Each structure stands twice: as C-alpha cells, then as structure tokens.
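Appendix B. Chain record.
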Amino acid sequence: MLVTPGQTHDGTVFEAVVERIRVPRQGGGRPRARPDAISADKAYSSRRIRSYLRRRQIPHGIPEKKDQIRHRLARGSAGGRPPGFDRTAYKRRNEVERTINRLKNFRAVATRYDKRAYVFHGTVTVAAIRLWLRV
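Structure tokens predicted for this chain:
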C-alpha cells in the first residue's frame, strides 16, 4: 500500500507501488520483486506505464483507451501493433475492486479521520488484516 493525497492520480505513483512488491519464496531466499502479471483498468493505459512494464518484463492486462486506439490506427503502420490484452485475466481484476470496496466499509478508512499519513496507513493495514482473517 502507498498513501497519497486524495487528488493525486494513481497512475503517477504506479511505478513506486510496483517497486514495493515483495513476494516471499516458498523455500526461503530473497523475495521476488517482479509479479507474474499486472491487471489494471484504462486509467493506467499510458505510454510511460506500458514502457515501464515492458522494461521490467512484466506481462500486463491493461485495455487501451478509445482515443489511443484511434491515434494508433491513424498513424497506420507507424502506429505499431496493439498491446497484448488477455480478457480472461482482466476479468479477475474485479476481485481487487471488490476488496477496495470492502475496505471502505470500515468507517475510519472511508472517512480518513487520521491526520497523519502513517497513522492512516496503519488503519488501512489493520482493516486489510481483519478482512484477510475474516474477523
């Protein structure tokens, strides 16, 4: 999790969030820093994010915006190929959206009573743990 001001677009901190990913290994050793794949909605469909994921060799399921498709097609063969998109993997993205909505059921998370970001981060962490434990 990464706490940002409410008016900040999530796409501006996308790289920082991906850099924080650490997946522990089963048999010990250094945790993996690269996820198997990333699914995101059209808000994350930018050239910067796609090139970042390509550089890190992370497969992604991010649909193109209609205006991006139109601009790519208008450029003809110079527009390049459309980015790969797996519809079946993209359908699982709603699990994350539902989890975020369940987090917002906690009053302290939804209204953000906490003044300091680190306190709010702790509040969201406790709420996530409660969801994970189903308490």
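Further analysis of this model is presented in Appendix C.
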